[in-house]
UniProtKB/TrEMBL annotation:
It is found in: Mitochondrion. The gene is MRPL37. This is Large ribosomal subunit protein mL54. The lineage of its organism: Eukaryota, Fungi, Dikarya, Ascomycota, Saccharomycotina. The keyword Metal-binding does not apply. Belongs to the mitochondrion-specific ribosomal protein mL54 family. It comes from Sugiyamaella lignohabitans. It holds the Pfam family Ribosomal_L37. InterPro entries: Ribosomal_mL54. One of its GO terms (cellular component) is mitochondrial large ribosomal subunit. Residues 86-95 have a biased composition (Basic and acidic residues). Residues 86-118 are annotated as: Disordered.
Length: 118
């Protein structure tokens, strides 16, 4: 129970997009038909020490790189439209995600009903 509460608190207090922001560019892009596209850019300028992101016991905090030094797929991770398109292109992965979601809902409902009996 404590673990579940801790997870819920962590989810609500720490936003995933704390180090990125959305910016609008008006430059035309050859991949999209619209003239404006939201791109994700880093909030931390290049060379900024990112405190608290060290994962090694004796390691140092990482230093932010310039945006062009990061791989392209990294910026697509935070783009819901790109993730949805990627999921729709893979039918097996989409079916698995739907099956897992339905299973989670079924487990939650069974747990709720079991709690009602007590």
């Amino acid at each position: 129970m404590l673990r579940l509460i801790t997870r819920q608190v962590l989810r609500t207090t720490v936003p995933r997009t704390s180090f990125v922001r959305l910016a609008s560019t008006s430059a035309p892009n050859t991949e999209t038909t619209s003239s404006t596209k939201k791109t994700i850019t880093s909030i931390a300028p290049a060379g900024t020490k990112l405190k608290g992101l060290n994962i090694k016991k004796g390691g140092e905090d990482p230093i932010a790189l310039a945006e062009n030094e990061y791989p392209e797929w990294l910026w697509e991770l935070l783009d819901p439209a790109a993730q949805k398109a990627k999921l729709e292109s893979d039918a097996g992965r989409q079916a698995r995600k739907e099956r897992r979601s339905a299973n989670r809902q079924k487990i939650k409902m069974n747990n709720f009903l079991a709690g009602m009996k007590n």
